[in-house]
Amino acid sequence: MDIDKMFKLPKLPASAGQKRKMPDNPNPEYLKKFKFDEAAPLSQTVDEPHLNGNGKGKGKGRQVTVQDEEMEEREERNAGGGGGGEVEDFYDDADDEGRFFGGGLNNEQEQILNIFDAAGEGEDGPVLDLPALRRQLGKFERTVTKNAEQRGKYPDDPSKFIESEADLDTSLKSFLSLTQNPPLFYPELVRAGIIPILSGLLAHENTDIAVDVVEVIRELTDEDVGEEEDAEGGAEEEERASKTRMAIGQLIDELLNNSLLDLLVSNLSRLNESEESDSQGVFHILAVFENLLSFMPPLASTITSETSLLGWLVTRLEKEGYDSNKQYASEVLAMLLQEGREVVLRFAKLDGLDKLLQVLFQYIKKDPGDGEELEFMENVFDCLCTSLAEPEMKQEFHDSEGVELMVMMMKEKRLARTRAIKVLDYALQSPPGAPSCIRFITASGLPTFFSAFMGKSTHKSKNRHLQTSQVEDEEHLLGILGSLFTNLESDSPERIRLIAKFVEEGYAKVERLLELREAAESRLAPVKRDIEDEKKALKAEGAGEEEIEEMEVEWYLRKMDAGLASLQNADYVLAWVVMEDDGAMTHARLLLSRKGMNFKNVSAVLRELKDNIGDDDEEENGEAIEGEEGGAALQRMILEQLIAFLEGL
């Protein structure tokens, strides 16, 4: 609150003309005429101004105005050298009970400031407790009822219900403070039957009210609610965080039981994004879906089977131009597709993969305009990669000329280039990716691919800081090579063209392959040392074989992240090359010997790969292996043959 405004009162009325008044802008000569009337009793300056223009005692604030003027006069005299240049002692002005005693304010001024303080303390609203919440909920129900009655009675006269609508808007905003204590407040919302009312308001005739409700639901279900308890740590904080999560879960369950999903999607259809408020409403709806999927990932199956959200998202991505809602739609779609085969197959029925390719076509010749659009492009590529995990989508990718599009992106060397390499890595994997492997060769993908493989590709854009990491790119490049050697038939023209690339230029690509192998080993070495130390420590503590075996899975995953995956891919490709070409074998043996190694080092890496490949699939996802035509079993068989060949050299 602005205290200055409260003290800037009107000038004294004519009836108070006996008081000294100064012009608005007094000059120095005028000020010299004034002398402070020290003999005037303080009571006069306090009592007289109580008369307003009508002679009635209301203008108490004038006492402050007059005293301020007198203070200004004294300051002017001191500043102007009045009184022989002596600066008056400001604090000797009154006795012990005067206006400057203690806090320097009289009773009236203290009362005014106390009012200000009380108002300031209430600006953020009182701290809610259950009784206050129940009163708030009761008021909310009455407001909803009143608005419904007025709308029903005067449907064609908005002036009759506009006030109750404004009250409803204000009442809804008050729910935002409930995030302060979810364990206390959320169960009360459910118990009091407020959730069905909120759900009903999602269908309110006024979309502004529906958007208000969406905003409330978004805030109540936000994943950051209770985050402070998680961050602080400690047993009590963990317990509170657990209670918060249970409260949010209870709230979400009640919302879902009251048709939340259908109501949210219906609002997506009736909101007009050309209007700023409606566009913001769409953003809030997408945020609610993000909250729901973050809290309950399996809900993706229900959302895609019982609502039309998936179709709306695909259509929204096709809309020309770029905006924040388009980016958010891509993010929600990516979250949905991550939740399993059922969702991906529903996406396929909407021709979703082909539409993703159409959306990405624009990035052949241009880069995203900013960081947010880059995130949009990343999300679309992620959707593509997730979809390609299913065999059916690999065939659709081939039929939709996805391989050709990715090759074009690689040639242009823009930001989409490295993402296209990642997509090809997913698309060419396993037996269902074999047709795309052939298409990749026939579409002249090898020259562009090996340019990237040799590290010769230079990004045209100035946004180099937005590129993916070099290590990640190298992993995908090695993955593509591995798929090509696995899927291209022996002695086929495409395979011969691939082998020829490793022979040309004095086996330069074999040298590059060993460079990548060495880089992966150097990243992996410190992690392997740490794991060995941990293993020794466990044995020293008396850990049994069973406990150590349980840790082996975690250790293996750590090694994969540290560089083992790249090392395995490099050695897999190297084994194929040396088996296919004697000149490449001789050159590789020479290079390995310079590092004190031989082909047995390569076979050891492949043996570890064979021992770990497909275990999780066999135990947890046997149907996926069958759908992939025994991909893991085929891979193990190939590895056995490669290992036998290397160990015989």
> Count of helical segments?
33
State mean pLDDT (0 to 100 scale). Answer: 82
**Strand percent estimate:** under 5%
How many strands appear in the DSSP assignment?
A: 0
Task: Quote the distance from N terminus to C terminus.
Answer: 87 Å
Percent helix range: 55-70%
Largest sheet: none
User: How many whole angstroms does the radius of gyration measure?
Assistant: 38 Å
Structural class: mainly alpha
What overall form do the CA principal axes indicate? elongated
Low-confidence stretches: 1-22, 30-72, 75-102, 116-127, 616-627
Report on the architecture of this protein.
By secondary structure, this protein is mainly α. Among the domains are: 3-121, no CATH class; 126-234; 523-647, no CATH class. The protein has 33 helices and no strands. The protein has helices at 3-7, 28-32, 42-47, 62-79, 107-121, 130-153, 162-173, 182-191, 194-201, 207-220, 227-232, 235-257, 260-270, 276-295, 299-306, 309-318, 324-337, 341-349, 352-360, 371-387, 391-399, 402-412, 416-428, 434-442, 445-453, 470-487, 493-540, 545-580, 582-594, 599-612, 615-620, 622-627, 631-647. Helix 16 packs across helix 17, helix 22 runs antiparallel to helix 23 (416-428) and helix 23 runs parallel beside helix 26 (470-487). The longest helix has 48 residues, at 493-540. The protein is elongated.
